[in-house]
Request: fold
Amino acid sequence: MSSLGAAPKPPSKDDDAFKKELVGLIPHIRAFARTLTGDPTAADDLAQEAMMKAWDARASYQMGTNMKAWTFMILRNQFYSEKRRSWRSTQLDQEAAERTLIAVDDPESPVALDELRQALKTLPEEQREALILVGAGGFAYEEAAEICQCAVGTVKSRVSRARKALQAALERGGYPRDGRAAGDAMRSILADADRLSGPLIR
Amino acid sequence: MQSAILHFSVKAHGTHEDEPRYNCCAFPANALHWGTAVSLMTEKSELLTDEQAVDADLDLDEARLRQQAIGVKLRHIFDEVVNEPIPDEFLEILRRADRRTNEGGA
Reply:
């Protein structure tokens, strides 16, 4: 620890409260990163960077406001600035896609979820993030608009286009997994819907 | 079919997905006059044959079901990650950051 005379600064109360809330948000930050990137490894890197950025910027956060939205915005900005720097080249994207296929190859995981994961990847990023925020993240359109720094109407139209595109992609099938016929995706999704809607938390 | 598409686009915004759907051919609650209702129904039948109306209804049901199913799956995919235990690296990063702050290093 510190040498004589330099007594350690007592942890500030604000810092403690901030940290506690941030830790509680880690699972959500990870989920947003995972669904945004589609790749578990890249997602955790992104989530960790976003978490560090949030910690470093804690002085600019007002306690009591929506920290989840604030951290999601940081993560999103991080995601796009990394993309702009394009350290994730096409080749890395390919590797990421392969890793994901392995990662989701879990016998416990219903196949139809994989189909939807794959279909999500085909969406333009702006549609994907809007759909995730509103459709899974529990944000209102207005909050999603703040996170994405765009108009509410823009979020609404992105969500709507994303839903239509997903439905079309799932109906086309075309994800050659397990040699199953194209078009099975939607049927298995429908078959699983009832079972899954039971234990949902939200 | 036109009305089915409009209806679907409203549903697709996801605000009323769990509401019971009102059949477009249901007797209008505020039609006091039987004649009014009959003429409404006659008008409708000029636009759609019964079979077409049934088809449109089925299309609508299916479209709504599919959107609901996608919503359920999407939340499931997200919640799967939320429910994973937090990898220790995350907590370690915060512990290190905390130590840095406490040592006055910032």
Chain A touches chain B through 54 residues (CB under 8 Å).
